[in-house]
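Long-time lurker, first post. I've been practising inverse folding by hand and with some scripts of my own, and I keep getting stuck on stretches where the structure tokens seem ambiguous. Below is the full token string for one chain I'm working on. Before anyone asks, I'm not after the true native sequence, just a reasonable design that respects the backbone. If someone could post their per-position residues I'd love to compare against what I wrote down in my notebook.
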């Protein structure tokens, strides 16, 4: 269920945004001229698969919003599609949204889908039982991803920095394989690659996203152009999300089947990944938009700059749009 892929670099985004501006047809506009049609992108992460339920159960239509749901096998492709205006909305991580904004994309967060609460892990070989034990050891993670970010948070918690370990930048699947084969001492990975890494006998997770509440949030992100053209449609989209989570709670067996099928896994596997993801309620959304989200955005922005993944800090003005969750009636 791929979700954590490399952040889109600023130069690529700048070129893509310019290209999008020359597109003959504006994204999100119904060809018939009959109102706004929202193209919503998502990929196979437990916190985003409820959108499939919304479509199959007619919940978009119930809220009067015309949505074309577009599933991406490649999460990176969904990031590029939103950044270039090929889609109007996408579910994506805060890290990747900030990277896109740093590259020139005009995007706003209108909803917190979920927080990772265990699906992202730092896993160590036998003999390393704590974060302090990573000092001087070789640790692999995909550079610039949220699992790299989790590693830095974990090291900081132990009074260490990246300079205290031998950091090995590897793609997530390659990092997990390198760990199992004994090439590195620890690895930062996300589900399902956590399952791969833990196949090394005696290995264990010494830190997870559950240890850092709010550090890895996932959001519904829309283009600012869409907000300007049809804020009511955006509001209906946000309302649909909460109707969907309520429907899932009332019809869990059927919902699990729908989401597992879309994610390409069986229901028991999906249930295991679902446990490491906390879907945010309306109240949790309001709390996040009340300040927690802005604090995390600043911290991740500093991370992107310090790791030279962006040339300069992304502008945060207009990034967070709290009015949509605030307007939802419980």
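-- Answer (accepted) --
I ran through it position by position. Result:
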């Amino acid at each position: 269920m791929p979700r954590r892929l490399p952040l889109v670099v600023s130069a690529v985004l700048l070129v893509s945004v310019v290209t999008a501006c020359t597109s003959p047809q504006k994204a999100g506009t119904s060809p018939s001229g009959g109102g706004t049609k929202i193209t919503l992108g998502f990929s196979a992460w437990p916190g985003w698969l409820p959108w499939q339920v919304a479509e199959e159960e007619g919940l978009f239509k119930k809220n009067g919003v015309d949505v074309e749901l577009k599933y991406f096998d490649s999460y990176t492709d969904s990031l590029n599609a939103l950044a270039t205006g090929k889609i109007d909305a996408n579910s994506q991580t805060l890290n990747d949204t900030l990277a896109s904004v740093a590259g020139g994309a005009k995007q706003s967060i209108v909803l917190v889908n979920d927080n990772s609460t265990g699906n992202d892990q730092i896993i160590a070989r036998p003999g390393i039982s704590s974060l302090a034990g990573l000092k001087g050891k070789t640790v692999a993670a995909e550079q610039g991803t949220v699992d790299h970010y989790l590693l830095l948070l974990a090291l900081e918690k132990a009074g260490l920095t990246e300079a205290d370990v031998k950091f090995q930048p590897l793609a997530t699947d390659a990092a997990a394989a390198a760990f199992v084969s004994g090439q590195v001492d620890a690895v930062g990975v996300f589900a399902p690659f956590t399952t791969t890494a833990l196949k090394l006998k005696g290995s264990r997770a010494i830190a997870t996203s559950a240890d850092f509440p709010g550090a890895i949030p996932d959001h519904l992100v829309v283009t600012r152009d869409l907000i300007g053209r049809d804020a009511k449609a955006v509001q209906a989209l946000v309302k649909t999300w909460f109707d969907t989570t309520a429907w899932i709670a009332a019809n869990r067996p059927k919902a699990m089947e729908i989401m597992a099928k879309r994610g390409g896994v069986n229901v028991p596997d999906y249930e295991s990944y679902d446990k490491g993801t906390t879907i945010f309620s309306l109240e949790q959304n309001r709390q996040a938009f009340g300040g927690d989200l802005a604090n995390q955005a600043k911290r991740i922005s500093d991370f992107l700059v310090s790791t030279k993944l962006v040339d300069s800090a992304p502008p945060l003005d207009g990034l967070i749009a709290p009015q949509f969750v605030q307007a939802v009636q419980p």
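A couple of notes from the structure itself: The two ends are 32 Å apart (CA to CA). Confidence is low (pLDDT under 50) at residues 1-34. Happy to go over any region you disagree with.
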